[in-house]
Design goal:
The protein has one domain: Leucine Aminopeptidase, subunit E, domain 1 (3-Layer(aba) Sandwich). Helix content is about 35%, strand content about 20%. It has a seven-stranded mixed sheet, sandwiched between helices. Helix 3 packs across helix 4 and helix 4 crosses helix 5. The protein starts with a strand and ends with a helix. The model has no long low-confidence stretch (mean pLDDT about 95). The structure holds ligand AR6. The site of ligand AR6 has 23 residues, from helix 1.
Length: about 180
């Protein structure tokens, strides 16, 4: 599914965030130490190779809502933007901190002239954020920023399973 708003395409696909050929940047659902870990972070570090952890080390630790940028190393993307999502119900207010992740990632992307960026569903795995609430927070944060975006033309949500994809498509579809 895709929607175009103010010339920016927003799309949802099912897939693996490490396989986003043709995208300038992918976003990592990171941990505070910016180390491999499980889930998205583990997959990104495995695909990028050890150079990514080396580049990350001096940038850590980061706080919930914060975003930092590195190179993509062995990934097919020039950049990785690492966001620390909130642990649901623990890092408060969780909705603001999750929205900050998307806002700060897009701001960093703009500063680097990035035209296409792919996000996973930050915080919805190990950090326990309910998928539908997280989707709503993510799309709202993005829509608010869209009128101010200059370089970014494509924002993709890469959802791991069918259910996550369906939820995101439904939430995106209902927002207009
Ligand atoms: N591509 C796209 N989505 C994925 C992939 C993938 N390869 N793998 C998992 N997902 P999570 P969090 C989905 O747990 O909740 C890590 O250990 C997954 O189904 O990766 O922000 C870090 O080190 C879920 O919907 O991120 C942190 O400690 C979503 O991506 C902690 O987990 C996010 O799941 C971060 O937890």
């Amino acid at each position: 599914m895709e929607k175009v708003i103010h010339g920016v395409k927003i799309e949802c696909v099912q897939g693996d965030i490490t396989k986003q050929e043709g995208f300038d940047a992918i976003v990592n659902a990171a941990n505070a130490q910016l180390m491999p870990g499980g889930g998205v972070a583990g997959a990104i570090h495995r695909a990028a190779g050890p150079g990514l952890a080396e580049e990350c080390r001096p940038l850590a630790p980061i706080k919930p809502g914060q975003a930092v940028i590195t190179g993509g190393h062995n990934l097919p993307n020039r950049y990785v933007i690492h966001c620390l999502g909130p642990v649901y119900g623990v890092d408060q207010p969780s909705d603001k901190l999750l929205a900050d992740c998307y806002r700060n990632a897009l701001k960093l992307a703009e500063q680097h002239g990035i035209t296409s960026i792919a996000f996973p569903a930050i915080s919805t795995g190990i950090f326990g954020y309910p998928m539908e609430e997280a989707a709503r927070v993510a799309f709202e944060a993005i829509f608010e920023l869209i009128p101010s975006l200059k370089s970014i033309k494509v924002i993709r949500f890469v959802l791991w399973d069918r259910k996550a994809l369906e939820i995101h498509e439904r939430v995106l579809g209902n927002m207009f």
